[in-house]
Amino acid sequence: MKSFPFYIARRYLFAKKSTNAINVISVISVIGVAVATMALVVTLSVFNGFHDMVATFFTALDPQLKVVPVTGKTANADDPVLTQIRELPQIDVATESVEDNALAIYNERQAMVTVKGVSDNFAELSHITDVLYGEGKFCLEAANLQYGTIGIRLAEELGTGVRWDGFMKVYAAKREGQLDMSNPTEGFVEDSLISPGVVFSVHQSKYDRNYIFAPISFARRLFGQEGNVSSLELRLKPGSDLDAVKRQIKKICGDKFRVLDRFEQQEDTFKIMQIEKLIAYIFLTFILVVACFNIIGSLSMLIIDKKDDVQTLRNLGADDRQVTRVFLFEGRMIAAFGAVLGIAVGLLLCWLQQRYGLVKLGESSGSFVVNAYPVSVHPWDIVLVFFTVLAVGWLAVWYPVRYFAKRLLA
Q1: Pairing mode of beta strands 65-69, 231-236
Q2: Considering only Cβ atoms within 10 Å of each terminal Cβ, which end of the chain, N or C, has fewer?
Q3: Euclidean distance between CA atoms 376 and 354, whole angstroms
Q4: Is the Cβ–Cβ distance between 224 and 113 less than 8 Å?
Q5: Out of 15-24, 272-281, 283-292, 375-384, least confident range
Q6: What is the pLDDT of residues 93-136, one digit of tens each?
Q7: What 3-state class would DSSP assign to 289?
């Protein structure tokens, strides 16, 4: 008897009704739920696509692991904790860096920049040589000359081009002492860089518009951080378990240093993307709720249409609870069919977008990092969408069915 309500509900769903409008409304209900479900699948997959695409940009300049002090901007470069980390057998390259804000001036143009002083082995740690443009090569120091490699957008802002002539002046506020307003230049440390003949581009405004890579000795003098580091950046040996090494380093650091992987280094960016994805999910769920009102209309008309059948079922021994469950199963099956159909269509659209790039980001090819909206289907998102549709559909029909059935059975 447990399958009896489901059997009757299935018959009602597929059987022809005495009033043709009920069939039409039932089909519209399935389509409405399917469209809302499809929108959820496609929208979440597009957000995943942007998330995965942004993640691919971090391989060029961001280290696999980054150790930064918990308090303050810098720590002693000879700290025993940092020394112990450098000596771990899984570490292939360890690079010290000093990073802070400064003012760059070239030919009367100026811009606020982030100067990142790095060790000589920075090119071994990162993939900066893969994102360079120009006739020269990545270089930090040579014959007492200090080179600065800048981002492509910063080069446009300062008007330097790929290679600039002469020196670029860099200013940073002194860390100690008071500013004398009668001679404000005394409150700044001034130094200069020359061009190595290349600029870098990683298609991220954070780097391309703001960063200058310079020798660590230059950054230490400029910011008054002799003997200090802002971070210790690490590359692991091939085959090393990143998560295991990260846990080991965190144990060594205790509460003195933080250990950041690539995603944690870009925490703000990913957090914003996750919030945007969550808001889109919530809004589309509200649209799904509205689509489920069609199910309520279909069920209410079906209950009225099957009034004589209900009386027959009661005469055959069905109690009021079983009769109510017939119509509950009817509504839930409409939601389930709509969910399956919507997911299938959504996955098809995602595949077409991945394969053919049907929806473009802009009319001019090459203006963006990718020409079409990126799409990435995550299985857990599909599971989430399916259960969201079922939950919303089941909750939407619960009270109306009980209300109408109660009046019909009275």
Answers
A1: antiparallel
A2: C
A3: 8
A4: no
A5: 15-24
A6: 999 999 999 999 999 899 999 999 999 999 999 888 888 999 88
A7: helix
